[in-house]
Structures are given as structure tokens and as C-alpha cells.
Amino acid sequence: MILAFLLSIILFLFFHPLYNNYTSLMSTSYAFLYDLWILYLSYTLCHQFLKITTHKKTIYSLTICFIIGSLIPYKNHPFLHVSLPMVTIILSILLIAFIIKEKQKNEPFKAHLLNQWYFYGLSIIAMSLIFFGQINGIVEILTLTFIFLMLSLLQH
């Protein structure tokens, strides 16, 4: 999980994250880095989700949709390239909320703390979207950090 996060940060060196998102790497000579990053990121997220939930079909479906949507060239199919990954990220965030809700039955105090972190993270992502007015590299890395943090907290 840490390696996937570090790779996300390293890719910042190849594009301007304030004005562009990771998709901008597809039109450069670093497109292979983007492809490798998407595959590794998808594998890592799938593996981490499978550690904390039994909803395997949902996780596999989300992973496949994320990979397909991210690797479809933006120039050919902009709607699919944007909508598939966005829907999978939103569903992943909702799945995290569902997992926290399930934890309330067994561990109410831990679930309460996780719920607070969950809403703090969502607030930061929402404020970033409002501040930047678009989805750029910074919003993408904040969203990934949020998901990785929540998955890490849910594991421990």
C-alpha cells in the first residue's frame, strides 16, 4: 500500500498536478508509467479491500471497471475514461462507509472513530474540489490518500 502511494507521488514529477490530472500522462512519452501505475494501484486497492470485506464479487467488479476505464484513451472515449473510474471511486468510498457501518455492531467505539476520520477525509476532498474547481492531480492524490488511510485504519 505504501509503494502504491509512493508511486502516485513520484508520478507528480512527470506532470503539473495543479493544472493536470494523471490522464495527462497518457499523451506523453511516460504513458507506460501511467499504465503500470494503474495496474499496480488497482491490484493494491483490490488486495486491501479483500482483507477487510467478504464482498469479493463487488471488489473484483470495481477493480475491472477501474482498470478498463483508466486505460481507455481519453481522446477516443472521453465519457468512458472519466465516468468508469469516477463511479468506481465513488462506489469504493461508499463501500468503506458500509464496512464502517458493519463495524458498529461489533466495535462501536472504533466505528465511531473511523466514522469521524471518514467524514474528515470527505470534507477535505470536497473542499479541494470546490477550491480547485476541477479534478486535478492534487484532488486525485487526496482521494487516493483518503482511501488508503481508511483501508489501513479498517485493517488495524
In short:
The chain is mostly helical.
Q: How would you portray this structure in words?
A:
By secondary structure, this protein is mainly α. The protein contains 6 helices and no strands. It has helices at residues 2-10, 31-52, 56-71, 78-106, 108-132, 137-155. Helix 2 packs antiparallel against helix 3. The longest helix is centred in the middle third of the chain and has 29 residues, at 78-106. The radius of gyration is 16 Å and the shape is globular. The two termini are 14 Å apart.
Key traits:
156 residues; 6 helices; mainly alpha; single chain
| Biggest sheet descriptor | none
**Helix/strand order, N-terminal first:** HHHHHH
Radius of gyration: 16 Å
Average predicted local confidence, pLDDT: 86
Identify the overall geometry.
globular
Structural class: mainly alpha
Number of strands: 0
Percentage of β-strand residues? under 5%
**What is the distance, rounded to the nearest whole angstrom, between the alpha carbons of the first and last residues?**
14 Å
Number of H/I helices:
6
Give unreliable regions as ranges: none
Helix content: over 70%
